[in-house]
Each structure stands twice: as C-alpha cells, then as structure tokens.
Amino acid sequence: MSAKLELLSQALRNVFGRRLQSLVVERGEITIEVAAADYFEVARALRDHAGLRFAQLIDLSGVDYSTYGNGKWTGKRFASVAQLLSVVHNWRLRLRTFADDEAFPVIDSVCELWPGANWYEREAFDLYGILYSGHEDLRRILTDYGFSGHPLRKDFPVSGYTEMRYDPEAGRVVYQPVTIEPRENTPRIVREESYGDAGHG
Amino acid sequence: MAEIRNYTLNLGPQHPAAHGVLRLVLELDGEVVERADPHIGLLHRGTEKLAESRTWVQSVPYMDRLDYCSMMCNEHAYCLAVEKLLGIEVPERGRYIRTMFDEITRLLNHLMSLGSHGLDVGAMTMILYTFREREELMDVYEAVCGARMHAAYYRPGGVYRDLPDSMPRYETNRFKNEKLVKQLNAAREGSLLDFLDDFTERFPKCCDEYETLLTENRIWKQRTVGIGVVSPERALALGFTGPMLRGSGVAWDLRKKQPYAAYDAVDFDIPVGKNGDCYDRYLCRMAEMRQSNRIIRQCIAWLREHPGPVIVDNYKVAPPRREKMKSGMEELIHHFKLFSEGIHVPEGEVYAAIEHPKGEFGVYAISDGANKPYRIKLRSPGFPHLAAMDELARGHMIADVVAIIGTMDLVFGDIDR
Asked: Which domains, from first to last, does chain A contain?
C-alpha cells in the first residue's frame, strides 16, 4: 500500500472511528462502508474535514446486489455508491451505504452537500427505485415519460415489458407488450475457485 | 393593465442547436430565462444494462457509441477498468499508441465542438474549417481499425493490432481527376506515422486560422464573454471536470495528476482559464488542441524507434496470433474459450477514470468473478455539466442558452447512455 493510501485510511479511521463499518484497500482504491443512518453526517465530514476535503462528488450510482455471485449474496440488496475526489489532496474515495429496507429502500440525499448529486440521485431512483430522502425534485430522468418499473434491477428483463411502434391505422405511436423473446447467447458463469488446477475434474 | 405571466418555451428535442436530442423546458420572463429544465433520456439505450448481459470484451464496441465524438477515449476508460481488475500491465508500445490515439480523439472532439459551437452562435465558417482537418483524422481512424467512427480498437490488455504501414488513398472518379488525386495522396504515400507527422506539422497553422476567425472576433466575444460564468468553488461543487473546470481556473487534469497510459513520459502543459465564462473555456479548448498536437508528435517520435508487442501475451485475456491458432492445439483452445466464454475477471470493484476531451470519463465496474460484469456504471462528463444548465442559464437571455449548450460540449450519447 502506498504512503498516500496509508495516510488517507489512517485519517478516515481517526475521523470516523466506529462509524466505519468497513474500510477496504484494494487495487489502490479505498472503499468505506457506513450505515444508512450515519451516511449524511459522514458525507458532510468527508467534505468539510480539513484532513479529507472531498470537495467533489464525481459519481453516484445505485447497485442491486441481489444476484451477486449467482446467489451467494446474503447482505442487503440495494446500495448507493459515491465516488469522491479531493482536488486539494489528489485523493479518491468510494463511499457505500446499504438501504435498510429492501421493499422500500431509502437513503439520505447528499444534494445539500454537493449540488452535483441532484441528477445522480434522480438517476439512481429512476434505474433502481432507491428513494433519496431530502431530495427536492426526485423525478425520473433517463427513462420514458410514464415508464413503470426500475430497469437496472436484476429482476427486470433486458428486453423490458413494453415496446413502442407506429400504428398506421391509429395514425400515432402505440405501446404494446414486447414481442421479442429474451435470449442469452453466452451463459453467465462463475467458476469455482479450484477451476483449472491440476487434478481438478 | 394586462397581467404579465411567465412564458414557457419548449426547446427541442429536435432543435439544430441542441446538439442531439435535448429537450429543454425554459420558463421565460420576456426574453430572460427564469428556469431551465433539461429533459434527457431520449437517447437512452441502456448501455449499463446491456453490458451486464455481455461478456467483458463484447461491451467494448458499446463504449464507442457513448460519446460518439470521442470514441477511443471511452474505450480507454473501459479497458483500464478491466485491466485494473485483472491486474495486468499493457506493453509500453500499446500504452504509447493509446496515448497518441487519445490525443487524436481529443482533436477530433474539440474540432467538432468548436465548429458546432461557432455554428450555433453564428460563425458559420468555423465548421467548414474544422471539418476539413477532422476528415483527415477520421482517415487515421479508418487506417488503424477499418472504421471511421466506431473503432473498437482498444482491447483489454492493449490495442487490437499494430499501426499499419499504409494509408487509404483517393482514387480518380468523375469528380476527382488524376492531378487532384495525386495532390490529395501526396501525404498518403508512406505509413500512418508519416501521414500523422505531416498532419501535425500543418495543424498549428490550422489552429491559427481558427483563432483568426474567432479569438478577436467582435461578435464571437459579444456572444461568449461573461456568459455562463462559474466560480471555481461552484464548479467543484457541481462536479465539473475537464475544460469546464479548467476554464474556471482550477488546474486539474488527470493526465498530469493521476497519469495513465504514457502521459507521465510526454511533455505538455495544462491551459487554465481565468473568468470561467464561455470565452475562457473556448480559449482552453483551443490551447488544448495545440498541446495535443505536441503530445502526438512526441508519440510519433517514440513509436518510430520502439517496435514491440501492442497487446499482452496472455491468452486468457488477449487472443493468440492467427497463425499460431491455426497450427497449435493449445492456442486453438484458448481462442475458442476466449471468444465463446470470455475473460473471467477476478472478484472486486474498481473505478477507472481518464481525462476525456469533455472532462472525466469514469467506469465503475463490479465483478463477481463471472465472465460478465456484475455492474458497470459509466460516469459521463457531460451529465453533471448539463445538470448545471439551470444554474448557468438563469438570468441570461434565451439566445445565450444556445451559447451555453455549445460551451458544455454536449453529446447525448454519453449523457443518456
């Protein structure tokens, strides 16, 4: 681990202490995980604390962990992952928090801290149905007007449920159930750990 | 007295100045914008969802279709993410080729953006000038990968093949006689590097031409100076990157601060603006083109001297050479497994970012150890820029909205994904 990462992870441990559920340093990147209840305050400290100074929220996205590792996932389902950047210290950090309730995932909005989070949270709401409490304008953003469902959830089919076509008789565009069959050309495979070892199989 | 109400105007989704399919709902007080509400998603193709059902390599061509004005840069970020997950190192020649093509892409993008920005605010000549040079760079794309736009040239582990020894040439037809063709082909007799060398020698002159057209142009300055001003603090808070951030005076460039490919070995400067308005951002892009030209020249010099492999020699990641595949059993099996099942990427998550011509383009990839990504999140630079539309346009005249759209350098392929 480089000195810089060591410095940052030490600073994070000092500032947050027990509030850090986990701190992982992997492939030269630091990921911290906090409880949904602490999320907003941790984010505020990340932005304002002199030793951290993450002035920029680079990205925020939702993740649906329900089919992770083809069913070996036992934790909570929805997470919100923010990528932060400190221009002053030249640091990056990934901040993850899981929503407590699977059926009604709610996470605090960080729009107040980083105004740039506005559209990212709208996007995560649109694609995953994660609700950001405190967001002023949580409308859908990428999907069609009047769309229902959250397309990036793992239980949403790639082909979707409705399709649109021009109906020459009605003289307008109509929506109808999809007519294409979902197909998978290459199956998704997670190999067991010893795969390819000598004497295996 | 009559009651005066705000007027709501719908700009787009099919407006020539909207750079694609932007629907902008503007609330106006006379001609002054009170509120701007961009509606995006009209070009949403679900790239992130599609990537989850494709193998890692199959998603590379989707990246071209994100920001279709800077194709190879998108691929670069994606390949970096996969390489970081796999923990592999690209051969040095591969890294230099990537650096060179990133800069060619930057030129392509800035030429497009300058030309269309000029066109939007009334400097019609710009696009004619910039497209002249853009066409030649498109030929470079074509020479190296066979496609003018959607290259799929970068692959996890390096680039698909080495630089070609010849350039495509013009042929005589009804419109081009022999004399003209000979003149057009003069620079195309040698290899791709010779052609680029010739181009980079001419290009600073072309930049001067663009500058004569715009930099001191009274109308251009009236349309851009003091329009869409962003303070450095505000630019950071809004998540701006690239020329939008540097135009406000923050010297932040990933090529320098967090170098990737061969950027730590080439010499270049970061142009920075002062006032954070449309004009400063224009100057930044202009200066960046000259810097890109410098980088390309250094890469050409290096590439001439250093032959070598361009992609990793690891059959689990990159396919074996065709001759070997046809004669060796081992190679044949690897080839088959690679193209049917794909790469197995170790479990983990990474965020890989590059300095895309428009800002920071990042790929957040989660792998659960399968032959397909578990989640790919594409961080497009235009997305936070457009999100700030309301803030930038408020209080400006309706005609300035077009100048602001131009300065943001919007391309809907990557905003809508």
From this structure: 3-142 (3.30.460.80)
Phi/psi of residue B114, each to 5°? -65, -45
Cβ distance B41 to A81 less than 8 Å, yes or no, reads no
B225: phi then psi, degrees, rounded to nearest 5: -70, 130
3-state secondary structure of B160: coil
Tell me the residues of chain B between 223 and 282 that have a Cβ less than 8 Å away from chain A.
Answer: 233, 236-241, 250, 252, 257-258
- Residue A181's SS3 state is coil
Q: Please, are residues B373 and B56 in contact by the beta-carbon 8 Å criterion? A: yes
Residues A152 and A156: their CA atoms lie apart, in Å, by 7
Q: Which two tokens stand for residue A105?
A: 């995932």
Query: What is the interface size between A and B, counted as CB pairs within 8 Å?
Result: 119
Task: Cis check for the bond before B271: say yes or no (omega within 30 of 0).
Answer: no
Please answer whether residues A138 and A117 qualify as being in contact, where contact means their C-beta atoms are separated by less than 8 angstroms. no
- Return the SS3 of B139: helix
Quick one: how far is CA B19 from the chain centroid? Answer: 15
pTM metric for this prediction:
0.91
Count CB atoms within 10 A of the CB of residue B160. Answer: 18
| Residue B339 with chain A: CB contacts under 8 Å | none
Average pLDDT, 10 consecutive residues per value, chain A (201 residues): 82 85 88 91 89 89 88 87 90 91 90 91 92 90 88 89 91 90 83 67 48
Q: Which residues on adjacent β-strands are paired with residue B348?
A: B367
- What whole-number distance in Å separates Cα of residue B329 and Cα of residue A89? 52
Q: How far apart are CA B375 and CA B366, in angstroms?
A: 5
